[in-house]
Amino acid sequence: MTRPLVITEDRDLLDDLVRVAAAAGAQLDVAHAAALARPFWAHAPIVVVGDDLADPVAETGPPRRSRVFLATRKPGEPESWRRCVAVGAQAVVELPEGELRLVEEFADALDPSPRAGVVVCVVGGSGGSGASLLSACLALAAARRKLRTLLVDADPLGGGIDVLLGQEEAQGARWADFVSREGRVSSAALRAALPAFGDLTVLAFHRGEVAAIPAEAMRSVLEAGGRGFDLVVVDLPRHLDPASAEALSRASATLLLVTADVRGVLAAAQVLGEVRRHTGEVSMVLRPGVLEEAVVATSLGLPCAGHLADQPRLAGALNKGDLSLIDGRSVLGHFCATLLTDLMAA
To answer: Gene3D superfamilies recorded for this chain (predicted)?
Structure first.
């Protein structure tokens, strides 16, 4: 991909623009003279003209195009708007106040054609119901279909969904690298930073003490995920935090795992009450127990998306990092493939 173009001789301004571009995951082509910019003008995804070279650029008669901005470190300078019009820029960006806007403009320009990513949240109705397992299996089923898939571990106390996948040693960014992020994140930069296995990309926690995910960081990740992936699966904790609420508010569908016994239904009802404060699209996935589906569905007032059967030897296999029991030929794999079809169709 052609890189963004910056046209300036002002070293201080250039330092600011390099830092802003880095925040959006971009590298720059830099022209220190107006004439040197002409070969790049039409092809760069975004052009930022420094106010120091705006007049010389205008004199070259550059063709009109979108995504041109005039950058200045002199707030309130009346001449900036004249220069903006002269070079055909769509706005003046005053630094440092306009840095966040420019980060978002770089990220927008660098994103490929956006995808309409489906966001699915998974939450356990009671402890040990298998929400992380269902999240991982659903994401793997999507990746096997060549759907670009992002699996997000949103439970800081869950032990790590990357461990469940046997990929805890994989190189790449973790939540600690995103918790301080505000504003837009490029989907291309997100994919490049995170561990990926074929069409499956994973955002998990690092080992050791972890911090809670700010809602702003979850928002940035899910917005980038929606633009850059076909499916985003979010494994939520049972005790919802602000980041969980943010994820639920963006969910196309939410799956609540319910164990079909009295205690499991009562616990699920408590979780459901919190979940419904943030989203309306909730279905249950039923785990085996003594109660019939109709009884559970009536008690919770939820439609049933399917039955997640127990699978012998699964726990031992997962402890060894063996995923063969959740491949497309297994009972669990077949269930997730069917569930995926329903979710994507809806």
So the answer is: P-loop containing nucleotide triphosphate hydrolases (3.40.50.300)
Which amino acid belongs to residue 344? M
What are the start-end ranges of the H helices in 124-198?
131-144, 161-164, 187-193
Helices (H), the chain: 11-23, 34-41, 54-59, 79-87, 99-110, 131-144, 161-164, 187-193, 215-228, 242-249, 262-275, 293-300, 314-319, 331-345
Q: Domain segments of the chain: what residues?
A: 5-110, 118-345
Sheet of 149-153: strand order equals 196-197, 200-203, 149-153, 231-235, 118-124, 253-259, 282-287, 304-307
The tokens of 181 are what? 């992020």
Q: Tokens for 169, please give them.
A: 């040693």
Domains 5-110 and 118-345 share a fold: yes
Residues in the chain: 346
**Helix or strand run (H / E) with residue 153:** strand 149-153
The one-letter amino acid code at 90 reads Q
CATH number listed for the domain at residues 118-345: 3.40.50.300
Instruction: Give the per-residue pLDDT at 229.
Output: 93
In tens, the pLDDT along 326-345 reads 666 777 888 899 999 998 88
Q: Per-residue pLDDT tens for 230-240?
A: 999 999 999 99
d(CA 181, CA 214): 9
Question: For residue 282, what pLDDT is reported?
Answer: 96
Let me know if 9 is exposed, middle or buried by CB neighbors in 10 A (0-12, 13-18, 19+): middle
Q: Provide the pLDDT for residue 187.
A: 81
Which residues, 6 or more positions from 4, have their beta carbon under 8 angstroms from its beta carbon?
A: 21, 26, 28, 29, 44, 45, 46, 47, 48, 106, 109, 110
Name the β-bridge partners of 6. Answer: 30, 48
- Which structure tokens are listed for 264? 């499991």
Q: Under a CB-based contact definition with an 8 Å cutoff, are residues 140 and 250 in contact?
A: no
CB atoms within 10 A of CB 239: 10
pLDDT number for residue 127: 87
**Mean pLDDT of the region 297-308:** 95
